[in-house]
Amino acid sequence: MNFDAFLASIEAPALRAIAQTWNVARGATLLPAWEGLRLEQLPQQARLIWVYAYDPGTGRFTGQLSGEQITKAFGKSFHGLPLELAHTGAIYLWVYQALTRVVTEPAAYKSSGRLYKQAGRTIEGERIALPLGSDGRTGNGIIGASWFMDPYLDGPIELLAENESWCPLKRP
What we know:
alpha+beta, Beta-Lactamase, 7-stranded antiparallel β-sheet, 5 helices, about 30% helix, globular
């Protein structure tokens, strides 16, 4: 799948707008830098975004940002939070493996269908994750976004993934 086909496969208009902004920001490079994204042009989508910095030397992810809807769903902000404290157990392992693939391959990721389980309810929607690279080549971060109808539930959240697709990235 090429990136144009990946973009076309994103159903949620808010997520498609984020992916398009990411694609424009990368220009002729493989990966855009976080600083190159123009998220101020996407004020409505900002609440859906989550961002992790990645240290290629240690393989660790640290939260940089979580939008309002993400922070509410998880009951905490990801800012400054190591990935292993944001997610635990088997969920952490799955998230770590998926994010590592996104940033090191590099690849774009999408899942749709069941995204979360909270308070005994399954929440459906769509999720994307896209790599970032300060030098345009080496992944050192991830911008992701999750679109779902907020059921206004409280309590622990369990991540789910269905209908996953990957798009290995090449220079535009």
